[in-house]
Amino acid sequence: MNGPFSLPRRAPRKVTQPKVTLAHGGGGTAMRDLIEDVFLETFSGAGHAAPEDQARFDLSALAAQGDRLAFTTDAFVVDPLFFPGGDIGKLAVCGTINDLAVGGARPVALSCAVIIEEGLPLETLRAVVASMARTAAEAGVVIVTGDTKVVARGACDKLFLTTTGIGVVRTGLDVGIAKGRPGDVVLVNGLLGDHGAAILNARGDLALETPIESDCAPLHDLVATLIAAAPGIRMMRDATRGGVAAVLNELAEASGVGVRIRETDVPLRPEVNGFCEILGLDPLYLANEGKLVAVVPPEEAEAALAAVRAHLLGREAAIIGRLAAERPGRVVMETRFGGERIVDMLVGDQLPRIC
Amino acid sequence: MNGPFSLPRRAPRKVTQPKVTLAHGGGGTAMRDLIEDVFLETFSGAGHAAPEDQARFDLSALAAQGDRLAFTTDAFVVDPLFFPGGDIGKLAVCGTINDLAVGGARPVALSCAVIIEEGLPLETLRAVVASMARTAAEAGVVIVTGDTKVVARGACDKLFLTTTGIGVVRTGLDVGIAKGRPGDVVLVNGLLGDHGAAILNARGDLALETPIESDCAPLHDLVATLIAAAPGIRMMRDATRGGVAAVLNELAEASGVGVRIRETDVPLRPEVNGFCEILGLDPLYLANEGKLVAVVPPEEAEAALAAVRAHLLGREAAIIGRLAAERPGRVVMETRFGGERIVDMLVGDQLPRIC
């Protein structure tokens, strides 16, 4: 960690240039000023401890929270950087918190590596970092270490972030994509496709009267609620790239079960539904950034649904289907007209740089 | 970790396209094929376990190795991707191993997030991933989880990697940039500036007869040797961006000491020295990727030097100076002509995209 957040603390020198320059990634005083002024000050001002030289965690304190360490990483290249309901910073913090959470872990800390295009307005960088700090502080997670690289104009598009998270898996909890069994119930925590539709709408010129907001949110608290209500829970997965369709297909294959969902039970915002109809998109494939798919044993389904619905991030939760022994590896949807269709996995995504 | 290495295992489908497409980052079957064929097969074939769905580590097994978890991240944007002595993959694995090692930690595992430009030849990606796998296997470190994003042509330059590492800090070891004391001895493990010179030479048209090779190497084993020989060691730092000059300046400031080095004791390859003279560069500021600066108490200096010199990666190790109470915060070099000059921190680097 010769990187950003590892420098000795002192009164930071304010960065006064209006734009990021190559010198800000060069390992000299300019980089140091950028890190101290933009990153350290912001992260330490957001209600948690200042990132330290070499992030370290007491292993016995971690072991007191559970028996396994979870470790996960994601790169974020979303375009545009700011969109209704969020920005790349919020997305990067929520995305990694959610990966930890759906693995059954309580998030502990994040790292953040930043690749910046020369010429990015300082104001933009400050806004993204502030959003990261705010989101992390609200979620009770600390951003403890990081790195900053600056590349020449044209060598990257504005700003890319990579967040990596560590967390502690609850003792005794055993969730996984291969653990679904026939009879299990499939639940989602709310309206699907908002993030994908929000990004696409923010890019395009459809100019909806009411812009669709991304559902970008940290799900760790919702997950805690869900696990408490359904301790026999089989698996959770956040439905990001590839949407709910990708999660269900992975589930069907890994668990060797059929997945049967009902179109009329899939919760959709009318605007997103309309948007998809206009553009010929299928909302089941749209990315979400605050939605998870959970599989619970049938006897815990009602309790799980009630608990999730009582949570702020689960008010529109719904049971959308069940696992079956029939047609293993397949996801089948009963359509609103009484027919059936296979919900296959797409080859690619419906749109690039969605997260 | 909805990402790459988290998909269920099955016989991978070979990716036959010659180039990476946007679909390879889209969360569908194309992405899955890419991850399984290029990443999972390579990493699992390199002598260690296959990356799993949600990377998890037994906390009691970690605690048996030491009392603290170390956590560090770095982004890699080096240009060109391949250079004499290494490539971006080797660099990304060594860089994060070295960050862990100089913090006193034994490296345990890495994550890897990849941002790929549409159109990157598959062959290039395979070569980089194979290099990562080889380097990690040689170092006894596993790459356990990751993520893949693909951006449109022109939105990034070929390939960026971010590696994040976890490791366990040796119980009782207390090293840090602020721990230097007057009288302590400053040691480096070999010839300085090779990486910076290698990259610059690989880019330019100086066309040296013997190309300079990067010193890119994992330092964890050397660090273990050094700590065993000098248990009272104060600090270690790998001298990457900003070179030895940046490390010594941070040390001087954080420890509140003066750093005094002798030009004639600084180990330099004659080719690198000549290269620097031609281009007007100062080798003290050139990046290294297999060199560390260590500060040890005077009574352990000889043992430390002998131990490092006996290691394959430390044959040209040298004591280059001492810490002093005088001129705190300053790095002063006695020149070969008997004069003195201040080795200040640069504002930026001598060259961008060095790592």
Reconstruct the topology from this structure.
Two copies of one chain form a homodimer.
Chain A: H1 29-44, E1 55-58, H2 59-63, E2 68-76, E3 82-83, E4 86-87, H3 88-102, E5 105-117, H4 122-139, E6 142-151, E7 159-169, E8 185-188, H5 194-203, H6 220-229, E9 235-238, H7 243-255, E10 258-262, H8 270-279, E11 292-296, H9 301-309, E12 318-324, E13 331-334, E14 340-342
Parallel strand pairs in A: 5-6, 10-13
Antiparallel strand pairs in A: 2-7, 3-4, 5-7, 8-11, 8-12, 9-11, 10-12, 13-14
Helix pairs in contact in A: 1-4, 3-4, 3-6, 6-9
**Can you name the CATH architecture of the largest domain in chain A?**
2-Layer Sandwich
How many beta-strand runs of chain A? 14
Tell me the number of structural domains of chain A: 2
Kindly report the name of the CATH homologous superfamily of the largest domain in chain A.
Answer: PurM-like, N-terminal domain
Largest interface, counted by CB within 8 Å of the partner chain's CB: A-B, 91 and 90 residues
Class of secondary structure makeup of chain A: alpha+beta
Name of the CATH class of the largest domain in chain A: Alpha Beta
CATH topology of the largest domain in chain A: 60s Ribosomal Protein L30, Chain: A
How much helicity do the residues of chain A have?
Answer: 25-40%
Estimated share of beta-strand residues of chain A: 15-25%
How many angstroms separate the termini of chain A? 26 Å
